[in-house]
Amino acid sequence: MFHTITVSTGRDFSGMDTKGNPISLLIALCVIWVAIPSWNVQAGCRNPNIVEDEGPFLRPAAASGMIEIKWFGHAFFQITSSSGTKIVTDPFGAMGYPMPDVWPNVVTIGRESGNHNNVGLPKGSPLILRGLKPGSEDWNEINTTFRDVLIYNVPIHQRGVPGYFKGSGFVFELDGLCILHTGDVGEPFNDDQLQLIGHVDVVLLPIAGSYTIGPDNAKKVVEQLKPKIAVPMHYYHNYNLLERFTDGPYRARFLNTNSFSISKDTLPSDTEIYIPKVLWGAEAL
Fold first, then answer.
1. CA of 65: how far to CAs of 45, 144, 187, 248, 267, in Å?
2. What are 5-29's pLDDT values in tens digits?
3. What SS3 class is residue 129?
4. Which CATH superfamily is domain 62-284 in?
5. Strand 272-275 vs strand 229-233: parallel, antiparallel, or unpaired?
6. In what helix (H) or strand (E) does residue 224 lie, and over which residues does it extend?
7. CA-based, 20 to 30 A from 274: which of 27, 69, 98, 247?
């Protein structure tokens, strides 16, 4: 039976250099994997090569029920497990999209800007998980299980003026599926980040190309992660970006709604791009 547990090493991500190499975090996580078997058993998304000599604690995630992924626009998604646990990512403020009526259990914030951190939009009293420590520019460390969902973050760098600034991607393991919301990542992942991410079934990634990766680098991220489903985001109505991302080599599916449901057993055999439709007005309710 799943329970809520938050694991902290008592360390921050200061080991990451200016190019985004979270060496100290990687070492700390390896220590945790060995020390806490109950967490290791659940962590099917993480790369087994990191702890391949540590016995059977890390095992592939077992298949389970159907989950739903719903896109509200920009980087704002809702992920719902088969048992009804709802995770909301990067809720936006006023930026032209309809404001949805959402009642999540958990809200993740990968970037501290008004287009990503509108925690006043989700209703109820959800758990708020921020990729940066409140009131600072330091990475926060998230490793937690909420009900039936394992959640952990990955430090990233986002493009800014000038240079780069910090943000987080988030990995969600639920119903045997591993879903990565990359956040506003500015470059393809380095080896250390790929180790922290581990196995990915579904990736939600930007293709905008200004403060994030563009279509070409988004394709490189898909090549790196080899997911079964890639969902582009963060392109507003710039369909030229979408055309560049979907011009090959992967099959593209243009959906008639802003959501789709999948399970471990119904994943496509080869990588496909899913493009949900942003719904407006009454359609969005």
1. 17, 21, 34, 31, 12
2. 333 333 344 344 444 454 454 444 4
3. strand
4. Ribonuclease Z/Hydroxyacylglutathione hydrolase-like (3.60.15.10)
5. parallel
6. helix 215-225
7. 98
